[in-house]
Amino acid sequence: MSADPLLRLDAVTLSYPNGTRALAGVDLTVAAGEFLSLLGPSGCGKSTVLRLVAGLLSPTSGQVEWTRPAARGDIGFVFQEPTLMPWATIRANVRLPLDLAGVGRAEGDSRALAELEKVGLSDFADAYPRELSGGMKMRAALARALVTRPGLLLLDEPFAALDEITRLKLNDDLLALWRHGGFTVLFVTHSVFESVYLSSRIAVMGPRPGRIVGEMMVDLPPERDLATRTGTLYGAQCRAVSALLETAMAPASNTGRGAG
Q: Do residues 77 and 157 make contact, with C-beta atoms less than 8 angstroms apart?
């Protein structure tokens, strides 16, 4: 992980036209190459932060500042649902961002197949989404997000709807892709266990209006597996993050701006 910041959210607030305050004074720095998880209760604004970073929303006040301006458009996004086109093959679904960017069909197919191989779906390139399991669809969505070789990957609770066995396997696969891909990850989750297992750093958000109320570096080895999940260090890290989350949920956490 680089110590260089990729982007900063500086005192970002967001209010909707109906008066609902989604975010209140969010301060957050994302370092190049890190795996940063946003952890917090449902409705606290985690997904809103992702959409602000992606440029899908604009802050009511405050700024989203990119220290590398060229990186602003260098983003892959994986949503909670795979959102695959049901009428297109998996290869065509993964190739779609390249088609939209004007990349030739031959190169697009080659790059799509390379990404499908990385996520273990090379044998299903000509299958249709209806023929894949939920976990396989999410793998295809990951491949589609990475086919443009983005510098920043945004993931909005991508594994929340999956069974536990599939979720754990995809956690391992995502870590492997990150370690070998050299990109930065901003990952939204409401699972303490998932955030600790995946992340190099965790930012905890309080209830709406959302703000960062605490951060913690994850003190685990880069290579993680079943032994990590059953180790005492992992358990201690989970307890520490749970304590941060409990503080975030306390009524007093809504009265101030919070750390961040």
A: no
Q: What is the DSSP letter of 128?
A: -
**What's the chain's average pLDDT?**
91
Residues 112 and 127: beta-carbon distance below 8 Å: no
Looking at this protein, which amino acid is placed at residue 74?
D
* Helix 90-100 vs helix 105-118: crossing angle, to nearest 10: 130
Q: For the chain, first and last CA: distance in Å?
A: 20
Q: Which residues contact 109 (CB under 8 A, 6 or more apart)?
A: 91, 95
Q: What ranges do the domains of the chain cover? A: 5-74+151-254, 84-149
Residue 151 · residue 184 · CB < 8 Å: yes
For residue 245, give both structure tokens. 């989350």
Per-residue pLDDT tens digits for 106-162? 999 999 999 999 999 999 999 999 999 999 999 999 999 999 999 999 999 999 889
- State the pLDDT at residue 67: 86
Backbone angles phi, psi at 97, to 5 degrees: -60, -30
Supply the Cα-derived Rg of the chain in whole angstroms. Answer: 18
Please, which pLDDT band fits residue 35 given cuts at 50, 70 and 90? very high
CATH number of 5-74+151-254: 3.40.50.300
pTM exceeds 0.85? yes
